[in-house]
């Protein structure tokens, strides 16, 4: 008897070591993505048969030599009724309270990390956050690694006043609007780190996809397990805080970052391409929606007609990156606190999340009757001493507007358009007289007899910029020149 007991004691660690296990992102209370194949994966004993049962499906896989297994559930229909998922091998795991709906990752630096409790009307928003069909998964801490990691940390939680306070405000308001408009479960995965650049969030494959970033690709490819990396090292945050989530089935990503790359222009455009392409490959979804926030107005208002200072060029790069398919950009140059323009964290995250959701609803969820954003420059013609500017996303029409805090944008009847400038061949900029005429903006200036170029809100803080569409969404900054 003692011999048998001793033998069992020796065997138990071995049995435990080969127990079937799952990554934290596959757990109780999760939301599984509808209408896409759903990867389920984990670890076990080599050769072990693993069977996953969910929603009338039963799929099997065999653990490989590396101790890993993966299978894919067939496309699922949205379901707000909680269900169980069973994983069975040498042992059995039963996951409870599972919903099927839409899943999004919410990532970036501090403005995405900024919590509901820290933002406008925080107490009221927390008290009202009873949304059992919204589920939250927050990657804890700030961690890095030189190589992609399989096992991360975190757990799914049901959205409630007791769980929402520390979650991303932008992410929550984005998900809440989707939930309200689509009336299906929403899963939100937060992975954020304040003060970080875009490079550490980018995959090796992403760097490889952009020829101009070949040096970063070579650097990351040379990493070894003992390479010392930090929060600014290319791919280091992705490896530790995003890769463990892959290839969890997701509809898309929202991204609020750029302040730490604020001195860049075209190089940020290249890095945005690398980020998006790399994540799409990592999540095994070439159509992964990707919606980002253009940087807010910041610091003292710009008073020079030509502008070009501060974040003007990175905002331009963020706009140019819209050439990537299935992407969109929330313009928020009207959301900074007018009384505290030096606050890099605008407290109104309700409109930030809402404007991101506007893009997703229009483009990802095919609500074509909904304009995706405010007016975006699309072209111009020079007619005598005037420049006629054309825009897309005009919606119900252009207007002079004013946005204050959380209030809806108000149309200013007979208002004057501001922060447009105009230049001739001498490249000297002058403030322009701007008028809305037949769905266009017409510019002129007594100082410029023969104009060749125009700019709008092309400065660090275009505080008085006031072109909107009648849906209340602000026009994006732009320039027609490349001087």
Question: Topology, pairings included?
Answer:
Elements: H1 2-17, E1 31-33, E2 38-43, E3 49-54, E4 57-62, E5 68-73, E6 79-88, E7 92-108, H2 110-113, H3 122-127, E8 131-138, E9 156-159, H4 169-182, E10 186-192, H5 204-208, H6 214-221, H7 236-242, E11 252-256, H8 266-282, E12 289-293, H9 312-320, E13 327-330, H10 349-364, E14 376-383, E15 386-392, E16 398-402, E17 410-411, E18 420-423, E19 429-431, E20 433-437, E21 440-444, E22 453-456, E23 467-469, E24 478-479
Helix pairs in contact: 4-10, 8-9
Q: Strand percentage, roughly?
A: 25-35%
Cα-to-Cα separation, first versus last residue:
88 Å
What does the largest sheet look like?
11 strands, mixed
User: Which structural class do the helices and strands define?
Assistant: alpha+beta
Low-confidence stretches: 8-16
Question: Mean pLDDT, as a whole number?
Answer: 96
Secondary structure: number of strands:
24
Helix content: 10-25%
Shape: elongated
**What is the number of helical segments per DSSP (H or I, 4+ residues)?**
10
Radius of gyration: 25 Å
